[in-house]
Each structure stands twice: as structure tokens, then as C-alpha cells.
Amino acid sequence: MKPALKESPPASIVEALEALRLHRPQQAEQRCREHLARHPDSVDHQRLLARALGMQSRLAEAEQALLHALAVRSTFAPLHEDLGGLLATQQRFEEAVASLETALRLDGSLQLARKKLGQCLAALGRGTEADAAFEAWLEQDPGRMQVALALDHLRAGRKDEAITTLRSVIRAHPDNVDALHTLAQAWWGDDERVSDIEALLRRATEIAPALTSAWVMLGLLLHQSHRSEEAIAAYRRAIELDPENAAAWTGLGADYAQIGRMEQSAEAYGRSLELAPGQPGVHMSHAHALKALGRQTEALREYRAAIALKPDFGEVYWSMANLKVFRFEPAEVAAMEAQVERADLPPSADVHFRFALGKACEDAGDYDRAWKFYHSGNQRQRPEVAYDPVEFEVRHQRIASVFTRDYLRERSGRGFESNAPIFIVGLPRSGSTLIEQILASHSQVEGTLELSTLGEIAVSIGRFRRARVEYPEAVRELTDRDLRAYGRQYIESTQIYRATDRPRFTDKLPNNFSHVGFAHLILPNATIINARRHPLDSILGGYKQLFGKGQNFTYDMSELVMYYRQYHEIMRHWHDVLPGKVLDVHYEETVGDLEKQVRRILAHCGLPFEDACLRFHETQRAVRTASSEQVRQPLYTRALGTWRHYERHLRPWQEELEDSIAELPQSVRDAGL
Fold first, then answer.
1. pTM confidence score
2. I need a labelling partner for 553 at 20 to 30 A (CA). Which of 26, 78, 343, 480 fits?
């Protein structure tokens, strides 16, 4: 006699399960309700309906679905387990314990029911009973006991023992989600294990698609790897599973900010704070997003909320100072002065307070005291960053030796044909944001961010070349096909930062001045503009700025002036080998005659004149640089010749840059008089 074939589940069950697997609870609900309209006592459909409603946070309706199913089949243990879990979600722990105990009495093999029972008993303070439930749960699965042992190793700082234990579990049980997830935690922070951690988390989420913590962890890993689109997808999945997961909303805010989606970033940070308001770091990040959007009043509210939670949060005070057009209240200045007197103030906080106090004193007209704080802040910051001025000088000598006039002429026009990019280069605090805002006010130009893409591509070309030839020398080996491919790679890689269909876009990373020759090779039709300012104003602006990252040359007076000379020399080189390619735009001349300079800028870009570019301060867009608030105001002259207020402290710079200053147009040299 042939054994009876196992009956296949109804199509509605299969479809509802697939919808739940794909995190489409509304679709699962619809399929279940369609079936229940004809067969209201179907226990399987009522159970799946309850799960779909629970995923939508419709807990009361989910409970009613389970109670209806129990009225039909009161001895079905999984229903009691589902009801216990639902009650626990609502913190109705006494009722949850009763349901879970019933489930286990009917079927003692329900492993997760024992774990849930232990959690509910612990929440009720019934520790001994909770321990017994957890022990029984662990004994049902030896692999689970080993994972628990590994967690004990991790808590005690025995990382190697934890990793060894977890790897043995995974060898024996490759689909043990707890082991996969815990091993990812154990390896976290090991730069050589990033790909392994990602593989573990992706496998864990494949086996257990509803494991919210793994999705959040994967999002953070992708964020740290600058893979923001993938990180956003991971955080979105976590939020679908748990809409009240504050960490997922925070991560979403960070990655939206990383790709310049500041509206979405501000919204995500705001939601995180609604769920968990006591997070000073998130208040600060929320304020950064609001600042970029020009919502200064709201940004200040968030900065001050962070300070209320953490009075020694020096970075927040500096962030307020970095609004530039903002002035501290007297009580805030007094609070900062008290903080820098503390012997136990962390070094980073001390530096942030000093830069903020420098700005406060400058606003008050006390320039000598402002210099004291700026200078001492720089002296404390310099040991915390890495910068080698000799290496920087040698690198530029190598760049100049590769990108000669003859070489560039020979390879002219071989790169990718796009004319979309407009590179704005120069030194920080030299007016590049103003130029960007002018261009972004044009109907054909989108303003993006300070993009590291060009430099990353340049450095990458030497990685797989023979004889370890690096950039810039590796450029000599590039074929015409390579040049086109790298140009196309730049355009495709920057697409993530584009939010409109405008044909042109700005890339405003000042440090790209080193790569003008490379940019011309791979994108021969790209436009390049050099933002210039009186050298003393330019480097003083850098010395007064505490950068979030990079620009490590700005924290020492000698290194800063040496950097300026290297910048000046390489720009002279580009003008010599690529005549007419780079347009110099002096900040002082722009302030003096805006329309003339706007017409020069647009003509250089091949763009028709538009009156909106003269009203750049009216353009509504996110701006993430230190000048974000300044470019939202009409042009003003008070920033011209700022260096004159500090002249007695700047004599070494004046002597070192005497020849460079002498070359400037008279209007630039006289600015501020």
C-alpha cells in the first residue's frame, strides 16, 4: 500500500507566507481576509492574519484574531505561544506567562516559547523561575548553549575564546542565526574582517529576515564602508520590522546626510528623537541637518538641547559657532570659559571649546583674546592629526613631473565626453561655497557636495599596476580606453549625489586642486574654477576653522603657510600646462562687482546668464559647509581684510607670502582698508 501523499497547503497560505517573508503585511492581511470571508474558522489563516496585523502594530486586532482561532482549536499549542508573545509585546507579562505556560504544557518541544517565558518572568522580577526557563531553553539546543558561553567570553573580554567557540558552532550548524550574529559582533571593529562581518550578517538576515538587530548592524557596517544606498536599504528594512527602533532611524539620518539628502536626514533624526529624546549626539546630528537646510532657529534649538543633556559637549558649542552668523549669549560664553578651566576636560572637548571661544571673542571685537583661543586650540589639535608637509611637497613635485604640457597635449580629448562636472577647487575658506551657490542658482546646474570621488579614482589607478607603480606615475600607463572608463566611472559614481535632472553639477572639494590634470585627462570637457582670496585671509580662515575631518595642514602656522605655497605653485603649473582651462575667481572682486564676476563664471562654464545667479542668497538648497549661513545672505563686505585685525600675530605669514601678495590685483591687496 502506498503512503498517503502530504497535502499541499492552500495557495492563500503560500501567498500570505511569501508576503510576510517579503515584509508586505498588508498584502498578507488581504489574502487571509479573502479566505476567511468564506471560511471564518480557518485556524491557519487566523494565525497568519494575527502575524500580519502585529507587523502593522495593530495589536488589539491581532489579539482578536488569535482568540477567534483559540475558540476553534483551544489545544493547539502554537496559538497559545503566539498569544503569549503578543501579550508580552504589550507588556502584559502576567497574562503572557499564563499563555506561554499553557503552550509548553500542551507541547514541551516549543523552544522559543521557553525563551519568551524566561523573558516575561525576568520582566516580572521572578528571577529564579526565569533562570530555570532559560536553562531549559538552552538545554534543548547544544549550539545555543555554546553561543551563550561565547557571549560570556565576550562580556569578560575573552574575545579570542568567544570567536573560537562561535566558529565551532557555525561549522557544526551553519544556519545557527545566533552564532552568525554573535560572531559578527565579536569581529566588529576589525578592519581586516569587514567582508566576513558583512557575509555573516547577510546570511543571518537571509535565514531570519525579521532579525531587526542584524539589519541595524548591517546598516552601520555599510555606512562605515561609505555604501550609503545599501545602508539606507538595510535601515529601511529594520524600520519596516520595528518602526520604533530609534537606532535604525538614527542610522538612516546619517546615511541620508552622507549622500546630501538633508530633508530626509532631518526627518529621520527627528523621528529617532521622538522615540528616544535623551540622545545628545543625535540632537547634534539633527541640528547639523537643519543647519544645512537653512533652518537656523530649529538647529539652535537642537544644539541647545544637546548641551542641556551634556554640558561639556564642546563639539556642540563649536557647531553653534560654526553657524558664523550666530552670536553666543553671555551665559553661554561664561559656560565655555568655565569648561576650559577644568583639569579633567577631555582633550577633544577642550579643543572644541577653544575654537568656539575664539569665535565668541572675535564677535565681541577682542581680537587678541580671540587669537589666544584659536592659537591654543590649534596647538592642542595638531598632535591629534596626521600630516606630513614634506610628503605633500614631494607628491606635488611628482604630479608636476607627470602632467607636463607635452603629455597633456598628446592625450588631449581622449577621456569621457561628459561636460556635466564643474570642479570648484582652491583652499578652504576662500569663497568656494559662494561660487557654488551662484552656480547652483542657475537652472542648468545642480549643487552637490564636496565629493572625494575624483581623488579616490586617482589613487585607485595604481593599485593593480605592475611593479607597484602608483599615482601619479601610473597615469603614464593609461590607455585611451582607461581614460574614458575612469571618466565614466566618475560620472556614474557621483550619480548617488544627484537629486535633479539638471545637466550640469558642481563638485566643490577644494583639495581637488591637486588633481586638475587628472580631471582634464579623464573628463576633458569638465569645467574647473579656482576660488581665490587674499592669502592672509585664506589661511587665517583655515586657522580659525576646526574641521570635522581632513584639512590636517591647518593646525600649525608653519605647515599652513607651506601648504599655501604648494597650492599656489601647483595652480601656476596648471595655468602653464593647460592655458585657459582654469578660471581664477577672487572673492574680493566678486564682492566688489558681483555681476561682472557672475558673467565671467557663467561664460567660463558655457552657460547663459541668468539673473537668479545674482540673487544666489534666495536659492533654497542644502549647504553643508562652514559658509552655509553666509551664502544665504546678500553679499556683504565685513569679511574683507579680516586678517588686518590679527596683523600683529601674522608677521611670519606676511614675510613668507610677500611675493604672492605682490602678484595680486590691487583691489584684492587693498580689501578691508
1. 0.73
2. 343
